[in-house]
Design brief:
Elements lengths: L23 H26 L13 E2 L6 H7 L1 E6 L8 E6 L2 H7 L8 E4 L6 E4 L3 E4 L6 E5 L1
Parallel strand pairs: 2-7
Antiparallel strand pairs: 1-3, 2-3, 4-5, 6-7
C-alpha cells in the first residue's frame, strides 16, 4: 500500500549527473589536481624510501658521436646514440653508447629518477646524469635514441 503523500520517481536520483564514457578532454580538468597530488605523493614516497643507491652505477660511452653516426648507421652497428642536454656550464654532449645501455637503464629500479654516472670518452671527466627518455622504434620496439 502506498502512502498518498509520497511520489515514486523513476530514473536516477536528483543531483547525480555522472557522465559515462566521457572523452578525456571533458574530464581532464577535473582530474588534473588529483593526478598532480598523486604524482607528488609518489615523489615524496620515493624520496622517503631512500632507495637512491650509494654505489655509483656507470654507463660507459663508446665514443663521441660523429657525422657518420646517423640513426640508421647506429642501428646497423648495434649502438645507440644519446645526448646530454646543455646546461649553463657546458654545451650539448653527443655520445654513442653500447646496445645494452637502454635495456639496463629501463630494467633498473627507479630508472628515470636515479642518478647514472658516465665518463667523458675524451676528457675522462665524470658526469652525473638522469635519463630523461629513451626513444623506441614503433615497429621493432628497439631503442634508437636516448636523452639525458
Amino acid at each position: 500500500m502506498v502512502d498518498s503523500g509520497t511520489e515514486f520517481i523513476m530514473g536516477t536520483p536528483s543531483g547525480i549527473n555522472k557522465t559515462i564514457g566521457a572523452h578525456r578532454d571533458d574530464i581532464i580538468h577535473k582530474l588534473e589536481p588529483r593526478m598532480n597530488l598523486y604524482a607528488r605523493k609518489l615523489r615524496e614516497m620515493y624520496f622517503r624510501e631512500g632507495t637512491i643507491p650509494t654505489v655509483k652505477t656507470y654507463i660507459d660511452p663508446i665514443r663521441e658521436r660523429q657525422e657518420i653516426d646517423t640513426l640508421e648507421a647506429c642501428m646497423k652497428q648495434r649502438v645507440v646514440p644519446g645526448v646530454i642536454g646543455a646546461r649553463d656550464e657546458f654545451a650539448d654532449l653527443d655520445l654513442v653508447f653500447p646496445w645494452r645501455v637502454p635495456f639496463n637503464i629501463s630494467s633498473g629500479e627507479h630508472s628515470y629518477v636515479r642518478p647514472w654516472y658516465l665518463k667523458h670518452p675524451v676528457t675522462e671527466e665524470e658526469i652525473r646524469v638522469t635519463c630523461n627518455k629513451i626513444d623506441y622504434h614503433a615497429k621493432t620496439r628497439l631503442p634508437y635514441f636516448m636523452e639525458f
